[in-house]
Structure to design on (445 residues):
């Protein structure tokens, strides 16, 4: 089909010749998922494989080493609103490409560190790059391509991060075969080459795009649903709502616990359960599989039921798994605790941004999503550091996991209170119907 629309950064022939008949939104989803896979495997999950090696080589404490990961989360959060604004201004594609290059450069620099301040500085570089190339840019792009299937599309994208966890076994093998410095150099090369190939396809939906929103929107008699109006609150309007405040606070407390689990999972199993790095890394693969189940299940349910309640249900999984970790006296019991936490951890990842898009619209979604990331990564920064500090003082993870359990419990009432903004606020932001209301039908002929 020839395309009459010629817009900035839209080249239909390039994509449709390779994947004829495929809705371009799904191409964006797949490309973003692959970039997130690289980010997740390399930075989020994979750095756990070098945690003890770095400590052994330099003699740093667990808390000091954990602080670097906390800095990564916090700097990424600080950068998120600026990156979100750049996405709204420049489009997703340019930001994603820049993020991939910065991330690869940061990993290469990590392989050359000689002092702890090098470690911290490089983590900040990686934080900025991964924030630009990672999930936020994909989420902003996807929010512009989908509405009725938004949560499910976002859950598909976040599978990239989940599948990245499956690659940790391979990264651990690289560390054992080439040393942690050599493994990082290999990861940098892969990130630069493969990452760019996929990032170039992550684009925000242009106005006037010929394909209907969500790919195919038709009534039973073949008539097409009218296109949804792109609406959105400004950041100033959004932050004045109780929805924004309660959702952000809930994510602060939840991220405290889930980030601590992800960062400390391999060190915990090596130290407490006395298993090898290969066995500890394999547990990440199991964690990832169950996380994928949570992502897909929550994404599917969130398009059909209250997203708020789906998030609360995810929190309950995390809450239930923490005491199992705390009292585990075997590798099997520790793995059971991780597998209870995993679907809860995975379930919140696609549903939170889908909630934001439903509540506040997509017009300024990049800026709003980035601001929420800034607020909520405070928990992600504190969690690993607090758990590491408790390990240094007690020589065990018991107290750290119990603290995470209590913090997760605090998150649940905040999510319950995060109800949608009033209809008046939504209409003032340009939305003419309420969330989930049917679209008018127009004659496709």
């Amino acid at each position: 089909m020839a395309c009459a629309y010629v817009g900035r950064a839209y080249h239909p022939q390039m994509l449709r010749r390779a994947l004829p008949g495929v809705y371009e939104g799904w191409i964006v989803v797949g490309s973003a998922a692959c970039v997130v896979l690289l980010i997740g495997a390399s930075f989020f999950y994979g750095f756990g494989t070098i945690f003890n090696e770095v400590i052994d080589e330099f003699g740093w404490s667990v808390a000091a080493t954990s602080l670097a990961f906390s800095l990564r989360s916090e700097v990424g959060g600080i950068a998120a609103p600026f990156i979100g604004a750049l996405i709204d201004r420049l489009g997703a594609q340019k930001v994603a490409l820049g993020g991939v290059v910065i991330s690869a450069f940061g990993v290469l620099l990590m392989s050359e560190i000689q002092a702890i301040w090098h470690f911290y500085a490089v983590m900040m570089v990686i934080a900025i790059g991964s924030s630009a190339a990672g999930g936020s840019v994909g989420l902003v792009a996807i929010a512009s391509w989908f509405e009725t299937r938004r949560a499910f599309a976002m859950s598909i994208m976040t599978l990239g991060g989940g599948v990245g966890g499956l690659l940790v076994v391979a990264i651990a093998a690289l560390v054992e075969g080439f040393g942690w410095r050599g493994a990082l150099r290999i990861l940098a090369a892969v990130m630069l080459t493969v990452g760019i190939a996929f990032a170039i396809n992550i684009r925000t939906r242009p106005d006037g795009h010929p394909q209907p929103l969500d790919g195919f929107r038709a009534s039973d008699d073949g008539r097409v649903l009218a296109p949804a109006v792109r609406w959105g609150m400004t950041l100033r309007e959004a932050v004045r709502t109780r929805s924004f405040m309660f959702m952000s606070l809930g994510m602060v407390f939840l991220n405290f616990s889930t980030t601590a689990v992800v960062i400390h999972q391999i060190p915990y199993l090596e130290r407490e359960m006395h298993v090898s790095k290969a066995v500890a890394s394999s547990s990440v693969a199991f964690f990832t599989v169950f996380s994928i189940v949570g992502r897909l299940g929550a994404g599917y349910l969130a398009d059909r039921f209250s997203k708020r309640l789906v998030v609360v249900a995810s929190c309950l999984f995390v809450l239930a798994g923490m005491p199992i970790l705390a009292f585990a006296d075997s590798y099997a019991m520790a793995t059971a605790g991780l597998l209870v936490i995993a679907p809860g951890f995975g379930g919140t990842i696609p549903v939170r941004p889908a909630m934001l898009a439903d509540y506040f619209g997509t017009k300024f979604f990049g800026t709003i999503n980035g601001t929420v990331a800034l607020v909520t990564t405070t928990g992600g920064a504190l969690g690993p550091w607090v758990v590491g500090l408790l390990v240094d003082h007690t020589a065990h993870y018991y107290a750290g996991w119990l603290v995470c359990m209590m913090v997760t419990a605090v998150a649940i009432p905040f999510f319950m209170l995060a109800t949608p903004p009033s209809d008046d606020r939504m209409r003032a932001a340009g939305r003419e119907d309420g969330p989930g209301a049917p679209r008018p039908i127009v004659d496709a002929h």
